[in-house]
Amino acid sequence: MSGLSYVAVDWGTSSFRLWLMSASGKVLGERRSDEGMTAAARTGFAAVLQSHLDALGAAADLPVVICGMAGARQGWVEAGYIDTPAHLTDILNGAVVVSGQAREIRILPGIAQRDAAAPDVMRGEETQLLGALGLNAPGEALVCMPGTHSKWVKVRGGTVERFATFMTGELFSAVARDTILSHAVAGAEEAVDGDAFRAAVAAAFAAPALSANLLFRVRSRQLLFGGSAQAARETISGTLIGVELAAGLAEREQGAPVTLIASGRLQRLYQMALEALSIPLDAVDAEEAVRRGLAGAAATIWKK
Amino acid sequence: MSGLSYVAVDWGTSSFRLWLMSASGKVLGERRSDEGMTAAARTGFAAVLQSHLDALGAAADLPVVICGMAGARQGWVEAGYIDTPAHLTDILNGAVVVSGQAREIRILPGIAQRDAAAPDVMRGEETQLLGALGLNAPGEALVCMPGTHSKWVKVRGGTVERFATFMTGELFSAVARDTILSHAVAGAEEAVDGDAFRAAVAAAFAAPALSANLLFRVRSRQLLFGGSAQAARETISGTLIGVELAAGLAEREQGAPVTLIASGRLQRLYQMALEALSIPLDAVDAEEAVRRGLAGAAATIWKK
């Protein structure tokens, strides 16, 4: 192998991100595309990966470590799940080899909560946790990872004890696109209406049972009082996030901060929401976290 | 006019129902189609109505009373709203005449709650309320009218004091059709899995903030433990209805029954849900209610 350089890949359902990494953890090159699991399942995982490696001129013997949906049953090679309570080290030990490839390729497993009363799965977020918290982080953390399927995770001394997935992001898309509220948000600009968002977070946090009513009020308000598409969109977003926070924050120890692992727009929204509720937070960039997690995995797998 | 016979029409967003009624309130003929407001706005309201009257051979001078979305701004003739607190008599007084027609045609107004903190609107349900409760029903009623947009209404002595719309039915469609859960429910049979439904109602009623997590568990459960598409569908349905009940029943006086105005599958589901929570209920058939409401309107408008 070319020293200890390696390739790190975060392979989601609908997105593909690849970094060419130096031994010291520096990003030497980067590729992003929408060839996530869904697309790659059609065109071939090996071909997608090789095309991006070729584009970067990556050496033929560089090893590759992958996290995310490439390890799902419908992915490239099934990498299974580590069961809760799951020490983050177990993820590294559970890495699966993709056989029949010229270079060494490993896919990290996900984590499963095989609790019949609260079954849950994650795939990709375990690597973000590893990167954000490290292998043996002391003490307890309540981690929020917003997304299409937001995760709230309780970690103690490097062990994932419990977690819960909230399909908040996907609900937002479905409500804004496929219900009567699509008319209310039509033409909304990209900028965030902070006032509408914060008011919606507070209302939903205080009365989560009202969620389906708070959503309908977006339409009633426009009909009776007018209002911008932007305010409508942020009210839908704030309502759904407020309900999620009502459940997620119930797990928080009094006064303890929430570790928020997020990037971009979601980072801004969740930070605004937590601040609106006066909840202290430690912000960690999600992309940096997954890269650090993959770096940790590469170091453990190939430096031994 | 031909005695006191008349035509009653319930004209919703996506459905059209017409009854030829005798003076004594007997149904003499009936028509149903999917020419709701959305379709009729394209083909013409007058033409749609006339085609159904022709099919029944209705006399040219029979008067027509209409409730529902035909009175919306995007409908036939805007019939406006009566504001809360709204006595049900006010609906009758607010009926709007469709001008330029050979026969007499009236459209009933909706009800608006012009409360900036809880804006809401109904159109069609006010006529069901009139039919179910009568003009001067003594005492207080908490009414649940399930649907695409469920209504919960507090009525006292014939006056609609407050109401709230929950977009439960539309959320169900969007979640089951346009999210990752569409895979979980694919191929579900029409029969109801009562156990899965009741368990989901109870779980969501107890912890409404968890709703987006309870929904995602449908997928996790199938992935880790298997389970039928039917159970998945009823769990989604029960979760969304359970959250709605947590909010709607908060308005209930201790021990008082809920007046459930519903038909068909929704009637069965909401009755099962209320019984699972040991809530007493008075069931009223929704179609009979709207017909009785339109009959009351016709009697007031044309018998004077």
From TrEMBL, chains A, B:
InterPro entries: ATPase_NBD, DGOK, DGOK_C, DGOK_N. SUPFAM superfamilies: Actin-like ATPase domain (SSF53067). It comes from the Bacteria. The keyword Transferase applies. One of its GO terms (molecular function) is 2-dehydro-3-deoxygalactonokinase activity. Keywords: Kinase, Transferase. This is 2-dehydro-3-deoxygalactonokinase. GO terms for biological process: D-galactonate catabolic process. Pfam families: DGOK.
